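Hi there,

I know you've been waiting on this one. I reran it after we fixed the sequence typo, so this is the corrected version. Both the input and the resulting structure follow.
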Amino acid sequence: MSKTFKEILFAFRDELTELVDEELYGEYDYYISDSSEGKVLAVVLPLDESEGVLISTLEDLGLMYIGTRESRPEDWLRNIVTEPFEMIPDVIVDPGDHELRVPSGKIVLKIPQGLAFGTGLHQTTKMCALFLKKYLYPGMDVLDLGCGSGILAILSKKLGARRVVAVDNDPLAVEVAKENALRNNVDVDVRQSELFSNVEGQFDIIVSNIVAEVLVEALKEAKRFLKPNGLVILSGIITQKLYLFEGYKIVDQMVMDEWSALVIEI
């Protein structure tokens, strides 16, 4: 029997999207669905985790708490996506196990919609993927810092990276990333680590899709883990927080909705 979780439900309005993303992104798994009474935000928590602080925080943002219900992944994941979709040009994400006829030159990532961030749906993941396609050349070494589901590490390997290390401080994410690497038949070194604490060696590219404040902390150590002329690809930055990266050499930038991604030379 699959594990049971709980969903904390709130009445949702589109004008609150930016505030909700900034508060929840990288911290919680959540989705928005339509109901007969309007849009509903569902935040997924383990059964034993208290929801009191979460409810207070989101009510302060202007959302109305409407209830809590128990669910299993197979219940709430149906509300997200089950069919393959093109995350970026020539990169298809298959959340199931579909028999796909894939045209030559396209990449398929088998990434179930699960309880680790990185399904391919979020703008921040898409921007990282676009930058990886642009800057990653076969034979490069890549570090995925805060790997979540492992989607960017797996994409890096399929783009031709030689060595790929994927780290996350969340044991659940580490477990999921390992499973996804096996599912995609790629060799990715997945390990638990607080940022660089369990990382050794140097890389051509460090990619990190986490919250802006943590990215700033990571940049303080990143140079030790970069090869000469290496690049850092950062995403998960609410546009209003771009000022945190002033003073760094930004060689490329992308914006999708309220989110920004950067390519930095250190």
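Quick highlight: Residues 9 and 67 are 5 Å apart (CA to CA).

Best,
R. S.
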